[in-house]
Amino acid sequence: MSIKASTRQVDSVTVVDLSGRITLGEGSTVLRETVRELLNRGQKKILLNLGDVTYIDSSGIGELVSGFTTVTNGGGQLKLLNLTKKVHDLLQITKLYTVFEVHNDEASAIRSFA
Amino acid sequence: MFIGLSQQGNPRGVPASRMSVEKRVEVTLESTLESVNQAEQIAVQFAGKAGFSEEDTHKVGMAVRESMVNAVLHGNRYDPQKKAGLRLELDHGRLVIIVTDQGEGFEMDHIPDPLAEENLLRQSGRGIFLIRAFMDELHMRRLEPRGMEVRMVKYPSVESSKEE
Asked: Where would I find the H helices in A16-104?
């Protein structure tokens, strides 16, 4: 199963609900295009909900990092929500857990953008 | 698409029940993205049948995936004339995995440390680091006249039931 992405607006924040696998190929491309499209529409507060993401490989990690730097350099904020244990562990061992702002509760994550 | 199989291994053509008695699987794969997914599936199935825990099986699958990405993308550069090899073997409870390519090869010393502050936000360069993190042993060497061989070993953890 590859990745699926859908977006919804909560106050000023765009929540991207991702599910499936973020891996080299389609998975990474979908994530990249989704973030790019949001930036093009002027959406600069982005919350990636990874609760249903079952798998991320190094390419997927790279895409998360790329999205983060692209949004940040554009004056926006990209944060992560609902990491599974596998994704959490991956971000820990790659030292990226300290780079990303990670939330476990959507409401508090939304408030953190204010 | 598999283009070559050892007489001991055909993970797609053999019913899963027969996989349980196999000690070795060897396949030759095209230099495609699909091969990366196939290699991961083969490794996950093999490790699972060998009695490795779910967590270890996940790690093995991910290590093989990253190795195969290196082989077909960075090594063979998707060249249809070049093949990637995958061999999985049970050796006294250890899972020994060898991934080969026919590319130009590289030096381990030339791979930047992905944990270094200046590299943290790089988009790529974490594959080998993850393989090392997920496997118990990692050895890499150049092949003659060309290519790389990645040899990985996974020991069964306490939770894993040993097959042998």
From this structure: 26-40, 58-73, 85-93
Taking CA atoms, what residue in A is nearest to B133?
A93
Q: Return the C-alpha torsion angle B121, B122, B126, B127, nearest 10.
A: 150
C-alpha to C-alpha distance for B30 and B71, rounded to whole angstroms: 10
Using the Cβ of A65 and the Cβ atoms of chain B, whether some distance falls under 8 Å is answered with yes
Provide the pLDDT confidence category of residue A2 given band limits of 50, 70 and 90: confident
Inform me whether the pLDDT recorded for B13 exceeds 50: no
Buried b (16+ CB within 10 A) or exposed e, B78-109: eeeebbbbbbbbbeebbbbbbbbbbbebeeee
* CB atoms A65 and B121 under 8 Å: yes
Nearest to A24 by CA among B69, B12, B20: B69
Inter-chain CB proximity B124 and A99 less than 8 Å: no
- pLDDT at position B160: 58
- A93 neighbourhood in chain B, CB within 8 Å: 130, 133
CB B33 within 8 A of CB B77: no
CB–CB contact B65 A23 (8 Å): yes
Residues B25, B27, B32, B38: is their CA dihedral positive or negative?
Answer: negative
Nearest to A94 among B36, B58, B126 (CB): B126
pTM tops 0.90 = no
Complex prediction ipTM: 0.90
Give the pairing of strands A13-22 and A45-56: parallel
The predicted-structure confidence for A54-91, as pLDDT tens digits, reads as follows 999 999 999 999 999 999 999 999 999 999 999 999 99
* A47-60 per-position pLDDT tens digit: 999 999 999 999 99
Q: Do B123 and A24 touch (CB under 8 A)?
A: no
